[in-house]
Amino acid sequence: MWQAYHSISSIDEALALLDEHGRAARIVAGGTDLIIEMERGQHPQLQIIVDMTRVPGLDDITLENGSITLGPLVTHNHVVGSQLIRDQATPLAQASWEVGAPQIRNRATIAGNLITASPANDTITPLIALGAELTLASKRGQRRLRLEDFYSGFRQTILQPDELLRAIHIPALSEGERGIFLKLGLRRAQAISVVDAAVVIKRHVDGIVWDARIALGSVAPTVVRVPPAEDFLRGNKLAPKVIAEAARIAGNYPAPIDDVRGSAEYRSEMIKVLVAKALRRLAADELDSGLPAHPPMLWGANGGRVGCGLPEPIVHRPDSPIESRVNGIDVRIASGQHKSLLHWLRDDVKLPGTKEGCAEGECGACTVFLDDVAVMACMVHAPRAHGADVLTIEGLQNGDALHPIQQAFIDAAAVQCGYCTPGLLMAGAKLLDEFPQPNTEQINYGISGNLCRCTGYYKILEAFHQASARKLQAEQG
Fold this sequence. Notes:
Elements: E1 4-7, H1 11-21, E2 25-28, H2 34-39, E3 48-51, E4 61-64, E5 67-70, H3 76-80, H4 83-88, H5 90-97, H6 102-105, H7 110-116, H8 124-129, E6 133-138, E7 141-146, E8 151-153, E9 156-157, E10 164-171, E11 177-184, E12 195-203, E13 209-217, E14 224-225, H9 227-233, H10 240-252, H11 264-283, E15 314-316, E16 322-326, E17 329-333, H12 341-348, E18 367-370, E19 373-376, E20 389-391, H13 404-411, H14 421-434, H15 440-446, H16 458-475
Parallel strand pairs: 1-3, 2-3, 16-20
Antiparallel strand pairs: 1-15, 4-5, 5-10, 6-7, 6-10, 8-9, 11-12, 12-13, 13-14, 16-17, 18-19, 18-20
């Protein structure tokens, strides 16, 4: 387990710690993968955690000279909510929308997704197809390289122990250039890719393909390009026969992996299906990205952005108390530093309302608000609560009055075993903050990270509609 947990206030502090401790140190941006890996004992050498989640200015998305730059704290929800990305790096927005659920997208960063280096990580595929580059920084200086050159093998990168990912650079889609990301998963939300594909095409006004880039994820040890299919498309129009042949070439190019999500043979066929579908949609100039215009984010009034940051760095040792404001009450807890926020709240703060269902961000039963942002408490380190505001199900009601979503769950009989209920209520309360009168689609998106194992969700949906009506009635007096 770690020996020191550093909540830093600047990039320079992070670089100094990496320079000093090397492989014994690890950066936390979202930490959604790292905390699970640590729980499984996958990082026995890890002694220093460097938490950069409260450094201002690192969650910016900017455009300059035709290049979009993402800071290292840009989350998947930041990307989904960025009109710039939707318009000029569309495949990345589409892929980010496919990642996890709102609570995960509020913590998980694009940079972290790239560094974890799984070939099934959705955002790697579109970024490679878009021609993204990375800036890596250390005390020795900076270097810039293509994202394609960042990966050396399965879950392996060339990132040095003293380096961090400082920025992601994406060439904005130019005139005549279009892109799309498609994914095959085993369910509608919270699904790991069986196969995913990103295709970027640039055409002349006469329809002739001038450039083509095809990237495939979850089919090989790393995300791969398909040069033979790209070469075949150049100089041709996207006619049905050309599309069919390009898809056939793509399906036959890699030697797909074979695992529990799909056989190699199945993956080869699905590559053909996804590439053909992508090319048909690009040929038809379909402008609909498939993204909801106003997606539920569950990210609070500040849009999930870092506020003023920390005035100075904080170092937590295994015996350092965690001082936090939980449900409006200041607490100082001398234990639980090595735990997740979930277990710290349950075991040390003695608030058992937040439940553990999966301990890996799959079920949503542990949803809480961290600095007004809905997160999965099982995927947050307990020291992150130091100096933060935390709201749990125990603090949701206003005095003696239940929150409208709580009362609606009672009135609509939306509770069966009740285990998932705290998480659903927390997600529901944040959804109603964003959309006082949500439609059914918005409700479905808002609770996509919350699993109920008892019901068909019909009573839960009914409760949401009742809560929105109750809230409107209360606001109108």
